[in-house]
């Protein structure tokens, strides 16, 4: 088995956890690829191959991400594009997407023996259209796309349509469109519901809404969501996909959010269910 390892070495326990992971993988007979960005930490290790993250995803059978949810998210998107499964190992705080904690590395033997299940997670496509209807860009999201006001604006008015039908106009700081996986991220902090990631859907959550209808709405996964600034001739939106740097959406442009053809596959070695994981994470100090 060829296993790719990517660690966020800014995390306190990430380096020691990654060394433990690599030691066990080599002991169990795996060929180990390591993200080129981690070379300085592991250059003294023997029998390792260093490649850029996307090349690791193409060459491996399984990807392992060590860090918090951000690291697992970033690595998971590379894995999903190449249709490779990913195992997250928590070296952060919450890490809802992690399949193992750093004290459970001996269970990597189960990974090598194929004793695991795959949890399939839906993703989103974000399409940016010009005023003339030309598609300018396409971005894939595993967690969410956040629409907020541009710099130096206090409040933004955002119109949302579903399959061409008006849903609502939201006045406030913005809105979040998320997958069930992303329901435990920014959407949860904004007051949205927690959705079991096996229930495919698109969640809309307003951010600090001044509208009468300020509640979250859960849509079917096959809905095509159109989002644009209500006063399209004068207002600008910023969007951020999975916490990446914001993109400015010019007046008159429209953003379409819909289910992606790409599906992420998370490796589940332990038998605990989503509610047990959620409760254990939220009860941590």
What structural category arises from helix and sheet content? alpha/beta
Spatial ordering of strands, largest sheet: 3-2-1-4-5-6
Distance between the termini: 37 Å
- How many helices in DSSP terms? 7
H/E element order: EHEHEHEHEEHEEEEEEHEEEEEEH
Q: How many strands, what sense, and barrel or not for the largest sheet?
A: 6 strands, parallel
Quickly count the domains: 2
Strand percentage: 35-45%
Average residue pLDDT = 92
Beta-strand segment tally = 18
CATH architecture of the largest domain: Sandwich
Shape: elongated
User: Would you identify the CATH H-level superfamily of the largest domain?
Assistant: Probable inorganic polyphosphate/atp-NAD kinase, domain 2
Which range best describes the helical content: under 10%, 10-25%, 25-40%, 40-55%, 55-70% or over 70%? 10-25%
Low-confidence stretches: none
Our Rg estimate from Cα atoms comes to: 20 Å
CATH class of the largest domain: Mainly Beta
Keywords:
285 residues, Rossmann fold, 2 domains, alpha/beta, Tumour Suppressor Smad4
3D architecture notes:
It is a single chain. The chain is α/β, with parallel strands linked by helices. It folds into two domains: 2-116 and 269-282, 3-Layer(aba) Sandwich (Rossmann fold), CATH 3.40.50.10330; 123-261, Tumour Suppressor Smad4, CATH 2.60.200.30. Helices cover 20% and strands 39% of the residues. It has a six-stranded parallel sheet with strand order 3-2-1-4-5-6, with helices on both faces. It has a six-stranded antiparallel sheet with strand order 8-7-18-15-10-11. It has a six-stranded antiparallel sheet with strand order 14-13-12-9-16-17, with no helix packed on it. Helix 3 (53-59) packs across helix 4. The longest helix is centred in the first third of the chain and has 14 residues, at 14-27. The protein is elongated and about 60 Å long. The relative contact order is 0.16.
